[in-house]
Specification:
single chain, 257 residues, alpha/beta, 8-stranded mixed beta sheet, two-stranded antiparallel ribbon, 10 helices, 10 strands, globular
C-alpha cells in the first residue's frame, strides 16, 4: 500500500535536518517544465497562477535560480520542506530512521513540478500547482503533460512491494493526475468529517491536517493493510462504519467540549 498526499504552498527551507536525502526520479520532466517557466514574465506568471505580482516575481526568480543538480546546499527533503496543514499533521521531522525508511516505501507526495516524490527526495523552492493551465508544445494543462508519467512510477513502486493499493489522501486537484479510468491499482479514498453547526461535514482545514495524521498513523504503525487503518484515532477521530464503503474509509470527530 502506498499513501499519496498533495504538496503545500508554504515551504520551510530554514530548519536544519539530519536525514540522508534521495534524488527526485522524474528530473527530466522537471527540467523541461523549468525551461518553459523561465520564458514567462512576472505578469504572465501572475495571470497563469492567479497570484499577486509580488508572489509572481518571487517565483520567476526561483525559476531562474533553479539548479538541476539537487544538493544539500540548494535543496531539502520534500517531507521536511513542505510546511502546510497536511505536513503539520504528518510531523515528518519526528520520524526516526526506521520510520523514514518505511515512509520511503509507502508514502508519496504529488507535485506539479516534480511529479511524484518520496519523502526524502530533494526539492528546491517552487510554486506550480497541478491545476495550472500551463500550455506548451501540444499540452494544454499539467494534467496532459504528466498524463501517465506519475501513475506509471507509482505502479512501479507498488509492483516492487508486491501490492496494488493506493491510499488517496490527496486533494481532488492533485489526485486527478493519478486517477485514470484504466488504473490497474485499487484506489481507497478516505473521508474525514467534523461535527459543526449541528451536523458532521468535511471542513477543509481539519481534513487536510487529518490526511497528514492518517499518513503518520500508517507510518508509525507500519501499516500495509488498509483494514488496519480503521484503528486510526489521532486528533480525536474515530472510524465511522455507517459511512464506510468498499473503497472508502470514513472517519468523524465530535465537537470539542
Amino acid at each position: 500500500m502506498i499513501a499519496v498526499v498533495s504538496p503545500a504552498k508554504n515551504l520551510d527551507f530554514k530548519t536544519p535536518h539530519q536525514q540522508t536525502p534521495t534524488q527526485p526520479r522524474l528530473m527530466e520532466c522537471t527540467q523541461e517544465l523549468i525551461h518553459v517557466l523561465r520564458k514567462k514574465s512576472v505578469d504572465e506568471v501572475s495571470d497563469l497562477m492567479s497570484i499577486s505580482r509580488q508572489l509572481a516575481g518571487l517565483n520567476v526568480h526561483r525559476y531562474k535560480e533553479f539548479e538541476f543538480e539537487h544538493t544539500d546546499t540548494n535543496s531539502k527533503p520534500a517531507a521536511l520542506a513542505f510546511n502546510g496543514d497536511v505536513y503539520q499533521g504528518l510531523q515528518a521531522e519526528t520520524f526516526d530512521e526506521k520510520k523514514m525508511e518505511f515512509a520511503q516505501k509507502h508514502f508519496r507526495i504529488l507535485s506539479g513540478l516534480y511529479g511524484l516524490l518520496r519523502p526524502l527526495d530533494l526539492i528546491q523552492p517552487y510554486r506550480l500547482e497541478m491545476g495550472t493551465k500551463l500550455a506548451f508544445d501540444d499540452y494544454k494543462t499539467l494534467y496532459e503533460y504528466w498524463d501517465k508519467k506519475i501513475l506509471n512510477l507509482l505502479l512501479e513502486d507498488l509492483q516492487a512491494q508486491g501490492d496494488d493499493i493506493i491510499l488517496n489522501l490527496a486533494s481532488n486537484e492533485y489526485f486527478k493526475s493519478v486517477d485514470k479510468k484504466d488504473t490497474p491499482a485499487r484506489i481507497i479514498d478516505v473521508e474525514f468529517k467534523d461535527f459543526k453547526n449541528g451536523k458532521y461535514k468535511i471542513v477543509s482545514f481539519y481534513a487536510k491536517k487529518a490526511r497528514g495524521m492518517m499518513s503518520r498513523f500508517m507510518i508509525e504503525n507500519n501499516i500495509t493493510n488498509p483494514e488496519d487503518l480503521r484503528a486510526f484515532d489521532y486528533g480525536g477521530y474515530y472510524f465511522d462504519e455507517s459511512a464506510t464503503e468498499e473503497n472508502k474509509l470514513a472517519f468523524k470527530r465530535d465537537a470539542k467540549k
